[in-house]
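Before a colleague's protein record goes any further, I have to sign it off. I want your independent view on whether this chain really folds as the tokens say. The record follows directly below this note.
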Amino acid sequence: MDLSNIMTHYKKQWGDFSINKLEKGPVHELPKGFCVLKFAPTRKRNMWTYATCGMSQEFDSSIIELHMFSPNENDFIIELLTVVAHYHKTGLRLGLGHTVNFGTPWHKDSLCNYGMISLPYLDGPALEWLITQNVTIRFLWLKPITTEEVKFIKQNGLEALEELFDKYEYNYLDYFRKSVI
């Protein structure tokens, strides 16, 4: 797959980036060229953005890329997104509404040790879809959530949790937020 299309799509949304590759673990099992792009804060957006590039392959039935936000530079997110991309490639194919166990909090002492794949509400359809001649790629938001919130999704569905996030003014940048459940 031509990763330059993905990089150009991200750049239109968030500006310049650096390319980051994890050099440990079974990264050789990831698609060729896989990397995580890091976007520094801008005048329009006061947060760091980390995004996968190349986590799916052209022949996959559902081609997705994921991104996360952080209040400060947190290169652990590069590792986290790499692990999630590896799970997508070698385990369960991920998509909208899925949850994934990070195996560790996304920040020391955080209650959020899972991720939930959500629509990219902050950026909308301009980010969500990239349609090229050969492929359609969907760009989704990986939101850190708590164990209690994962249980809630399994019982009540993604939309029900998203409604609680709205009701309680969920702060997706707060490493130490409490569960909304």
